[in-house]
């Protein structure tokens, strides 16, 4: 049986159209929440982190953690495993995960002129025109970021992504529903031997992508008849060694008959390929108003494969904690505005799971006692030996990992 997908702009009348299609077709609806829950069960990652891959901007730590890519890998696997379900309708961000090679999918896009959408948002939430414009623009930014992440297509309504684009402001609900149901009968989107084989290839590629992500690798994967192709899109210092490691991982996946590697378009850009190392923290927030010191410290940590972001004051640090949830914080005490002790109090009150290492050049024994009572992981004095700091960071990371088991 064919599969039906819906991707829609906000305030385009999606809910009533989908409801009528379900009533008249008997298709089972699967939402983003359903796919996120399935991906969470497969991965062990919290649902919140899975959903963050498409509902929020990319974290400043992601180039070190590859958390977004791991989440997408498990979303693909969750999607691949349900492709055999009968009379299935998939709605939302996750609907774009299905590859174009699977032809028995009718891909629907619902969109309307912005003026229409603004009016609908104003009515739905009693908003001013300015607030409605802001809300819709924010949503559209998320849609654009998602289509760009998956296909390098900035326009989420690009015709190449869909079989049908329905302008819901220019047709009635009944007209839209009738058109969808009529196209569901089209012989072109009925399952064939070739399209079912494409599903098998999708499943294998998803399993390989997950196997690689478990070992800290983020690589583009495609599969056909057991042949897996890995595309390396980021510059690599030791390409041959990486290719050998990737092939050894992929060959262990059931269904893989052979593996080949290719160089992608992004290989010759400035970025360097980073494998995620689970043994060291990759979400370290450095908080210090001494700019030269903290920038040098960040570089030295990155040389040790520890990902870091920088905040130069307490208020910025608290904003980053809220937005990007670091694992470990290295915190100075004496800063303008909110001082380090106050930051420590607020972090431990709102995010007690974050381990905080105090690193200060102006602290006292009384400060040390206060910080440790507030829950600091360690209290270190400047200047600090980088190896001593690294050992404390690894110990903090191990404490976090033990709590997560």
From TrEMBL:
Pfam families: Cytidylate_kin2, Response_reg. InterPro entries: Bact_response_regulator, CheY-like_superfamily, P-loop_NTPase, Sig_transdc_resp-reg_receiver. Residues 283-397 form the Response regulatory domain. The modification 4-aspartylphosphate is found at residue 332. Keywords: DNA-binding, Phosphoprotein, Two-component regulatory system. One of its GO terms (molecular function) is DNA binding. GO terms for biological process: phosphorelay signal transduction system. PANTHER family: PROTEIN PILG, STRESS RESPONSE REGULATOR PROTEIN 1. This is Response regulator with CheY-like receiver, AAA-type ATPase, and DNA-binding domains. The lineage of its organism: Bacteria, Pseudomonadati, Thermodesulfobacteriota, Desulfobacteria, Desulfobacterales.
């Amino acid at each position: 049986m064919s599969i039906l997908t819906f991707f829609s702009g906000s305030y385009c009348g999606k809910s009533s159209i989908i409801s009528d299609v379900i009533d008249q077709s008997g298709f089972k609806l699967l939402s983003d929440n359903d796919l996120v829950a399935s991906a969470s069960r497969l991965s062990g990652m919290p649902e919140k982190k899975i959903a963050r891959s498409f509902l929020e901007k990319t974290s400043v730590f992601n180039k070190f953690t590859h958390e977004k890519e791991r989440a997408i890998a498990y979303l693909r696997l969750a999607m691949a495993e349900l492709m055999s379900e009968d009379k299935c309708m998939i709605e939302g961000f996750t609907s774009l995960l299905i590859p174009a090679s699977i032809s028995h999918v009718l891909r629907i896009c619902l969109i309307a002129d912005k003026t229409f959408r603004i009016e609908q948002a104003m009515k739905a939430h009693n908003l001013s025109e300015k607030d409605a414009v802001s809300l819709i623009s924010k949503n559209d930014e998320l849609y654009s970021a998602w289509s760009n992440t998956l296909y390098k297509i900035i326009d989420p309504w690009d015709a190449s992504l869909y079989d049908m684009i329905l302008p819901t402001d220019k047709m009635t609900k009944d007209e839209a529903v009738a058109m969808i149901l009529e196209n569901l009968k089209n012989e072109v989107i009925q399952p064939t031997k070739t399209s079912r084989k494409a599903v098998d290839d999708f499943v294998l590629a998803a399993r390989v992508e997950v196997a690689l992500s478990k070992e800290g690798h983020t690589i583009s994967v495609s599969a056909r008849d057991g042949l897996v192709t890995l595309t390396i899109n980021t510059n690599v210092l030791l390409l041959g060694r990486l290719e050998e490691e990737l092939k050894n991982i992929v060959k262990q996946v059931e269904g893989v008959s052979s593996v080949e590697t290719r160089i992608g378009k992004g290989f010759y850009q400035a970025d360097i390929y980073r494998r995620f190392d689970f043994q060291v923290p990759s979400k370290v927030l450095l908080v210090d108003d001494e700019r030269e010191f903290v920038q040098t410290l960040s570089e030295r940590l990155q040389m040790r494969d520890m990902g870091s972001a920088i905040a130069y004051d307490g208020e910025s640090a608290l904003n980053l904690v809220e937005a990007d949830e670091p694992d470990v914080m290295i915190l100075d005490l004496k800063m303008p505005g909110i001082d380090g002790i106050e930051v420590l109090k607020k972090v431990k009150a709102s995010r007690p799971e974050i381990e905080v290492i105090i690193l200060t050049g102006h602290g006292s024994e009384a400060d040390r006692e206060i910080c440790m009572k507030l829950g600091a992981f360690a209290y270190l004095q400047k200047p600090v030996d980088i190896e001593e700091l690294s050992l404390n960071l690894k110990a903090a990371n191990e404490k976090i990992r033990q709590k997560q088991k």
